[in-house]
Design goal:
Helix content is about 25%, strand content about 20%. The protein has about 210 residues and is an alpha+beta fold. It has one domain: Glutaredoxin. It has a 5-stranded mixed beta sheet with strand order 8-7-6-10-11, covered by helices on one side. A two-stranded antiparallel sheet has the order 1-9. A two-stranded antiparallel sheet has the order 2-3. The longest helix is centred in the middle third of the chain and has 17 residues. The protein starts with 8 loop residues before the first strand and ends with a helix.
């Protein structure tokens, strides 16, 4: 998982007619892999800058401040079903903010799958928050990877506008992947789940 203090995959600024400077161009996320915000990049002889002026600011401190506070999320899954974490009573939950176009996100999935298979029957759940822009790409990925058996939240309106999932932006997360671990009482225990889940999950299941 990308440490919150390091640059992960950040959504490039979109160009909207009449709403933003038309000199700013949209580039596919894969071009921006590993490129930190505010770094000037030259691609195909076109130099452009990625700015965060219109996006919520995420800092390591902001993520850390979530620890110890309750967190409830709700949304619609990729197959159109409603989901609310309030129904996950007495379950430890990992919330994975990711996208199929994010290389580091996909690289974390085998580890997450192993943890899910090991602890799911003991009271652990995983919820994916997909930041994909195309639902077909998401469905194709899940069809090829049926081992990712947990629910995936998808925001079609945000995807249509090439925005990150509304939950992602509401929490101020600009860089993915991010994994948040929530305990049985709905309280955030970690915002660095990829690094800490092996140690934390078995302890939290015993609480």
């Amino acid at each position: 998982m990308t440490n919150p203090s390091s640059p992960g995959h950040r959504h490039p600024e979109r160009t909207r007619e009449g709403s933003r400077d038309q000199s700013k161009r949209h580039f596919p996320p894969e071009i921006l892999r590993g490129v930190p915000l505010r770094m000037t990049v030259c691609a195909v002889l076109i130099c452009f800058s990625i700015h965060a002026a219109d996006a919520p600011t995420t800092t390591p401190a902001a993520l850390r401040e979530m620890v110890g506070k309750p967190l409830r999320i709700s949304g619609t899954t990729v197959d159109g079903k409603a989901l609310n974490t309030e129904s996950y009573t007495e379950r430890v939950v990992i919330i994975d903010f990711w996208a199929t176009w994010c290389g580091p996100c996909v690289e974390e999935l085998p580890h997450l799958k192993d943890v899910y298979e090991k602890y799911h029957d003991k009271g652990m759940e995983v919820i994916g928050v997909s930041n994909d822009f195309k639902i077909d790409a998401m469905k194709k990925f899940l069809a090829v990877h049926p081992e990712c058996a947990w629910p995936q939240l998808f925001d079609p309106q945000a995807a249509k506008e090439q925005e990150l999932h509304s939950i992602t932006t509401q929490l101020g997360i600009e860089s993915i992947p991010v994994m948040i671990i929530v305990d049985k009482k709905g309280v955030v225990r970690s915002v660095e789940g990829a690094k800490e889940m092996d140690e934390l999950i078995p302890k939290m299941l015993k609480e």
